[in-house]
Amino acid sequence: MTAVQAGFYGAGDQWVDQMYVQYMIPTGRLGLPIVMVHGATLTGKSFETTPDGRMGWYEYFARKGFPSYVVDQVERGRSGFDQAPFNDVRSGVSAPSNQPLLRRIESDTVWVRFRFGPRAGEKYPDSQFPVEAMGELAKQAVPDMSQSLPADDPNYVALSTLAKQLKRAILLGHSQGARYPFETALLDPTGIAGLVAIEPPGCKADQYSPEQIAKLSQIPILIIFGDHIADRQSVGAQWSDAFTDCQSFVSRVNGAKGHAEMMHMPDLGIYGNSHMLMQDRNNLQIADLIIRWVRANASS
C-alpha cells in the first residue's frame, strides 16, 4: 500500500477484508454455536440489544446454552474498510467514479421498508416493533459498501473459516446478510450444521443450479418471514416476491431430498412482526422457535 493510500506514516502492508467476530460462550454448553450475520447498512449491533433496551438474541441464545457469535460484515462496522480507494481519489491519483458506493438508508424509508407501518410515522395496529425507539434504530445505521464487494465475496470466506474453527455451527443471516449462509455453504459446507435465513430479499430459487441445490439439500435450512409482507413497497423489491421466491427455493431443496422449512409468523398465529424480528417486542418468542428448530433438525 502506498503512503497516499495509507494516509498515515508511510507505505507498507495493511490487512483488508477481515471480519470482526464477538462471542459469548455459556458455561454448561447445551447446543451448537449460532453465528449471526446482520443486514444492509447495519452491524452486529442488531443482535446485541433491542432499540428500546431489551435483551437481544446474542445474549438470549447464550443464556439458553448456545455459544453465541455476532459478526460485523467485511467492510462494515468494527471490521473496518479499505481506505485506499478513497485516498487515491482525494489525492487525484484516481477518478471519483472509482470510489466504492457508500449506502445508508434513511429513517422514513426504513419505517415502510421494514414494515413498521404503512407510511412514515404511522404504525400498524398490531406492530411488534418498538416504534417509540425508532431514533435508536436510526443511530445503528452505518455506511455500507457491500454493493462494491467482488463476486467472490470475502464474507463467504470469513464465515467459512469461522464455521471450520467452530467445527459445527448454525449460520444465521438477516436481510441482505440472509443469503450469506447459503453462499458460504456452497463455497464449503465443512463445519456448517444448519442454515437460518431471516427475511432474505429472495432465495435465488431459479438461479441456483441443480448441483447447487443438491449441495444445499445436505444441510437443514430454515427461512423465517414476519407479517404484512403483502403490503406494496414504493421502493426496492416487494417482500411478497421474496417470500414467493423462497417458497420455490424450499420446494426445490425438498424435491432434492433435503430438509428446508419456511416459517411465516401469521401462519403460526403470531402477528405484527416487522423486518427486524430480532428487535421486535416478541423477539425472544421468535428466538425460541429457532432454538426448537435447531434442536429438532441440527444435532450437536
Briefly summarize what is shown.
With 300 residues, the chain is of the alpha/beta class. Helix content is 32%, strand content 12%.
Task: Give structural notes.
With 300 residues, this protein is of the alpha/beta class. The chain has one domain: Rossmann fold. It has 11 helices and 7 strands. Strands 1-3-2-4-5-6-7 form a 7-stranded mixed β-sheet, sandwiched between helices. Strand 6, helix 10 (239-255) and strand 7 (260-264) form a beta-alpha-beta unit. The protein starts with a helix and ends with a helix.
Write the layout of secondary structure elements.
Blueprint: H1 3-6, E1 20-24, E2 34-37, H2 45-48, H3 57-63, E3 68-72, H4 84-90, H5 107-113, H6 134-140, H7 154-166, E4 169-174, H8 180-187, E5 192-198, H9 210-216, E6 221-225, H10 239-255, E7 260-264, H11 283-297
Parallel strand pairs: 2-3, 2-4, 4-5, 5-6, 6-7
Antiparallel strand pairs: 1-3
Helix pairs in contact: 7-8
